[in-house]
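Form 12-C: Joint structure prediction
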Amino acid sequence: MSRVMLEVKELTTKYITRYKEDIYAVDHVSLKVEEGKSLGIAGESGCGKSTLALSLMGYYFPPLYYTSGEIIINGRNISGLDPDDVRRSILGTEIAYIPQSAMNALNPTQKIIRFIEDVIQAHDPKITRKEIYEIARERFEILGLPAEVLQKYSVELSGGMKQRTVIATSVILSPKVLIADEPSSALDVTSQKMVIKMLLDLMDKGIIKSMIFITHELPLLYNVTDDIMVMYAGQIVEQGNAKEAVFDPLHPYARGLMGSIIVPESGLRDVKLASIPGVPPNLKDPPAGCQFAERCKYVVPGCTAHSVDFHELEGGRAYRCIFSEEELREAYKND
Amino acid sequence: MTDQKDICLSGSGLTKVFGYGRQTCCAVDHVDFKFYEGEVVSIVGESGSGKTTLAKMLLGLINPTAGDIYFQGKKRDISTYKKKQEYWKSIQAIFQDPYCSYNIFRKIDAVLLDCIHMRGGRRLPHAKKVEMMVEACSFVNLKFEELTNKYPFELSGGQMQRLMIARIFLLRPKILLADEPTSMIDACSRATILDMLMQLRDEIDMTPIFITHDIGLAYYISDTVYIMEQGKFVESGSADEVILHPKEAYTQRLISDVPKIYEEWDLSTV
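Section 2 - Result
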């Protein structure tokens, strides 16, 4: 058993709206990432993927508030820490984040090297610019980026290059865990491949120890990560390794999601894409019991009665449904 | 099969050059095509290959530098605003970004009423107009009662895109240009949007033209696929032929770059 890099136990965070309503965007989420492993999180827009990423980093600024649960990064409990302390001692060295809109994350009036100076000097104020340049150049070379990029402005770079620069900048201090929040959703397929290759390179070369990859594109997750979690309305509904989660999902929602995969491979045209009817529940007033019950094909009256447990199976698989594994498989067989 | 069908939109030597003097950029370079009635066409290419420029020319939003567009056998004439409006009755578009496609100062009712008026329904009684709007909204699984008196920005991205399809339902154009209709919405709503577009196609007999960078989508939905590189069509043919047995190196690279689930994804070729 290898070392656990990031462990989250029953994390719950909420947004408080202007009208003092609580919205639980992350609801009792537990996860564990081991050294050398990557975890993928899938789900539709608004299910809480990005909020989970922010919560993991301890980035609690209003309207996001921490409610309960534990976050342990590399043996250190950071839950409930002041966000400013988190920024000083954890961000960058223990955990790093690539935002969704990394393309717009670079200030166009600054050279790329200045961002790297910012990051390094925030943790070590004594270091000189020359030393920083050497560190940056070396790191860029390892990652296959030309060193000239350092002296350029962000507007001079292409989209894919900008994205890779942002990634290189956020991992400059060799964080233990990297959270990538849709790093390639705005890129075309060729640039996407380069970005993914770079992320996998980071893992191979030991610059980062483990990775959490958030996206709604399942074929990508299947190819990149070891484990996949499916999120729905703030809860984890399915958990398993990549193969199981894509080819043999247990939760009805995960099954619907896997039915919507489009890949250019023979046989695709013969199957009809499955779409899930309806919309996710309003989290201001979440339904009692299963959150997915309203859209579920296999719903029975018991679904809405009380909250649903997370069933854990052998080999790290888990799902959130009132049916047992056999009952679900039987139901899917009849489709 | 397509031989007996009528050509609804075709172009010859279509070219668009941006810029003047030394700094010119040829976005679309002598492109020839024939789109037949009732067939689903996809134009696939990377960012910057000129897909959207081509779409804008087809819509008459920008003028081509050279070349002609033929609409239903006749040369397209949009020299005056009146003729342009007439043309837009038969060609309509769905754009990439639903958030930017609406005028934020106008309510949803006004958006839909505009479509009815454009079809010549200005003098209909109000109750009839409401009935039409309700029908259009229910076609795309939206409830008109929930939408009325709201502004477009109060909806989610998927809902906005579906409202766009409701507009198309009311307008009943001959040709629909869908410029990356699903790239801003997540994978789960994508299937719903595509289903609706195909249903709409059967309902009102239109010719959809998809412009996309998603090869999987193009393969799933279309009969004919055009691959575009640097302003030129490098390969075209039936979807099975082009996607499963690509001939050009560019097409092969494009397809190998897409993450797949049944085949190995080769990362070494970057």
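Section 3 - Comments
The longest helix of chain B spans residues 187-204. The interface with chain A takes residues 46-47, 141, 156-158, 185-192, 194-195, 213-220, 239-240, 243-244, 253-255, 257-263, 265, 267, 270 of chain B (CB under 8 Å).
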